[in-house]
Automatic annotation (TrEMBL):
One of its GO terms (cellular component) is plasma membrane. This is ATP-binding cassette domain-containing protein. Gene3D superfamilies: ABC transporter type 1, transmembrane domain, P-loop containing nucleotide triphosphate hydrolases. Residues 1-29 are annotated as: Disordered. The chain crosses the membrane at residues 50-68, 88-113, 155-180, 186-207, 271-293, 305-327. Residues 376-611 form the ABC transporter domain. It is a multi-pass membrane protein. One of its GO terms (molecular function) is ATP hydrolysis activity. It comes from Streptomyces typhae. Residues 52-329 form the ABC transmembrane type-1 domain.
């Protein structure tokens, strides 16, 4: 299981995305329920040999300790008969040492297994998160996902030492001690069992509340993580708005929830511990009273009573281990329930993108290595985002021919950027078909599909690391000359030359050391480095000045012979030279044509052009402008 992609990530049929969504976990009580045991054993199974060795050594150490009361009885009887006790004392000392050493070795092995289980769980969770379908990430906030991968998986450490080994060892030790106590005196054994069973009933009444409290505490931690992730992701905005106090209150709310429910867990835990202590003390008093009467009546010897009392106190560790195992199991089960919810989210088929783009069919047929431009076709595509949101695309159809530049324009919320999400298969349409080179993209290998596409997102995200790291995402083996080529194409060479370490300069968290325009150019260079057959540019010039916008337009124009370029833009100056422009409005295709054709044929396009002063001098500007519709891109 280690280092592999979870089986659910290797879905044989990508069309399963249209299947029913899995039911959500309801958080029902789960004291030792079969589902939790099954999930736990799945993680423990690869470690079963070490668990057996460690558990066996711990059990051996415990058994060696059980002989000590017998030797103690012999010492007392020898003292009564005035016979030598040195050999018995030496044997007792040796048993203590052996028990301690063997127990320590067993404990270390089990702790090693526990850490391995935590590592294994985290690796599976990490791989599951990174292969999640985009539609699934809309269900759980990023901070909550991080909490499940860190805080919740940490609790898996208790699964080995408490929930499994201590349960088994505690049960075996408990039976062995009860058998030895029965050999000492069956009357005192019945007295002990009566008191212990009464205490056990009282303890059991508090256990069902523990899982719910533990789960709520973990949800509080997740709420805290989500709030901090939100605040740190918009740190400058929060400071500029003076919103530190408000954001601190949101984060502290999660911390308080975790604190309140953790206190409930601690309260229940302490009550259980108190019940156990009282039970043992009452049993001790009962045994002392009944046993004293039996010694006085010569029904048993004083040495036997002392040995029995020692065994009574030997009951404390296994009883405590069993109760602790039940408590900790409920805590672990709550964490496993949250991890299980994540692992049941649907993933994409495991198909890593090729390091180098895959040539088009025409290029392959001609025996050439260079990829050729791809064509894209939408046929009656209907789409709405998961949930109860409105329909984004109402049966749209259009064709993007191979090579050249195609632009999508229209008011905010028209569905322009969603076109890119469907081409990349971030989402699946509810109706219709999206084709690449005439083939349904659902029939294409996902890695091959995305390997042929260069994609620049609307906000041009930059990861923490160096400029080189950001350019080479998904392409670890890139020649220096190739890097310099795309750096020059994206007009980043001036920036790189000024930086103290060139391409190896750190850009800060989310690229905070770069300007918005520099981040956009990094994203463009990253896309160009893939030598894509299809280049998707979403608002790629929104943060560029006029000079760099013109330079990037020249770059785009220069690559349209080898690459199909599709652009979403509000600034019509970016796309006025496009081979074809698709005007969208309200999730429908309104018009298709060149800049000049649309100026004369489409009122909405003329309206957009008028607001940006792109009408010819002789063309009268539209008098009514939908200003609110052109202030930024929606879905």
């Amino acid at each position: 299981m280690l280092g592999t992609v979870p089986e659910a990530a290797r879905e044989p049929d990508a069309r399963e995305e249209h299947g029913p969504e899995p039911p959500a976990e309801t958080g029902r009580p789960a004291i030792l329920r079969a589902e939790a045991w099954r999930d736990m054993l799945r993680y423990l199974r690869p470690q079963r040999r070490l668990i057996l060795v460690g558990g066996g050594l711990s059990l051996l150490g415990g058994f060696s300790g059980l002989i000590q009361p017998v030797i103690a009885k012999s010492v007392v009887e020898n003292l009564e008969s005035r016979t030598p006790v040195m050999s018995a004392l030496i044997a007792l000392t040796a048993l203590v040492l052996v028990s301690a050493v063997v127990g320590a070795i067993g404990t270390f092995i089990l702790m090693r297994v526990s850490e391995s289980v935590v590592l294994s769980t985290r690796r599976e969770v990490i791989r599951r998160v990174l292969w999640l379908r985009v539609s699934e990430t809309d269900k759980i906030p990023p901070g909550d996902l991080m909490s499940r991968a860190t805080a919740d998986t940490t609790l898996m450490r208790s699964a080995v030492t408490t929930a499994i080994v201590e349960t088994v060892n505690g049960s075996v030790m408990l039976v062995a001690i009860l058998v030895l106590m029965g050999f000492m005196d069956w009357v005192l054994l019945l007295t002990t069992l009566a008191v212990v069973l009464l205490g056990g009933v009282l303890v059991a009444t508090g256990l069902p509340q523990l899982e719910n409290a533990a789960r709520r505490a973990q949800e509080g931690v997740a709420e805290l993580s989500t709030a901090l992730e939100r605040a740190l992701g918009t740190f400058r905005t929060i400071k500029a708005s003076g919103a530190e106090e408000a954001e601190a209150e949101i984060a502290e709310r999660g911390a308080r929830h975790a604190w309140q429910h953790s206190l409930k867990v601690a309260r229940l835990d302490s009550l259980v511990g108190a019940f156990i202590t009282v039970t043992i003390q009452v049993a001790f008093l009962a045994v002392l009273g009944v046993g004293g009467a039996r010694v006085a009546s010569d029904a048993m010897s004083l040495g036997s009573l002392i040995a029995f009392l020692l065994y009574l106190f030997y009951l404390v560790p296994p009883l405590g281990a069993l109760v602790t195992a039940m408590i900790r199991f409920n805590v672990v089960a709550a964490a496993m329930s949250r991890v299980g919810e994540l692992l049941r989210l649907r993933t994409e088929p495991y198909s890593p993108a090729p390091v180098r783009p895959v040539p088009g069919r025409d290029a392959a047929a001609a025996g050439r290595d260079a990829p050729v431009p791809a064509s894209v076709t939408f046929e009656d595509v209907v789409f709405r985002y998961p949930g109860e949101g409105p329909v984004v695309h109402h049966g749209i159809s259009f064709e993007v021919p191979a090579a050249g530049m195609t632009a999508f324009v229209g008011p905010s919320g028209a569905g322009k950027s969603t076109v890119f999400s469907l081409i990349e298969r971030f989402y699946e349409p509810q109706g219709g078909t999206v084709r690449l080179d005439g083939r349904d993209i659902r029939d294409l290998d996902l890695g091959e599909l995305r390997g042929a596409i260069g994609y620049v997102e609307q906000d041009a995200p930059v990861l923490a690391g160096t400029i080189r790291d950001n350019l080479c995402i998904g392409m670890p083996y890139v020649e220096e000359g190739e890097l310099r080529r795309v750096v020059g194409q994206a007009r980043l060479d001036g920036l790189v030359d000024r930086l103290p370490h060139g391409l190896d300069t750190e850009v800060g968290h989310r690229g905070t050391k770069l300007s918005g325009g520099e981040r956009q150019r990094v994203a463009v260079a990253r896309a160009l480095l893939r030598r894509p057959r299809l280049l998707l540019l979403d608002e790629v010039t929104s943060q560029l000045d006029a000079r760099n916008e013109n330079a990037l337009r020249e770059v785009i124009t220069g690559i349209t012979a080898q690459t199909t370029v599709v652009v979403v833009a509000h600034r019509l100056s970016t796309v006025s030279m496009a081979d074809r422009i698709v005007v969208m409005d309200g999730g429908r295709i309104r018009a298709v044509g060149t800049h000049e054709e649309l100026l004369s044929e489409d009122a909405l396009y003329r309206e957009l052009a008028a607001t940006q002063m792109l009408l010819p001098v002789s063309e009268p500007a539209a008098t009514t402008v939908r200003a609110n519709d052109i202030l930024g891109e929606g879905p």
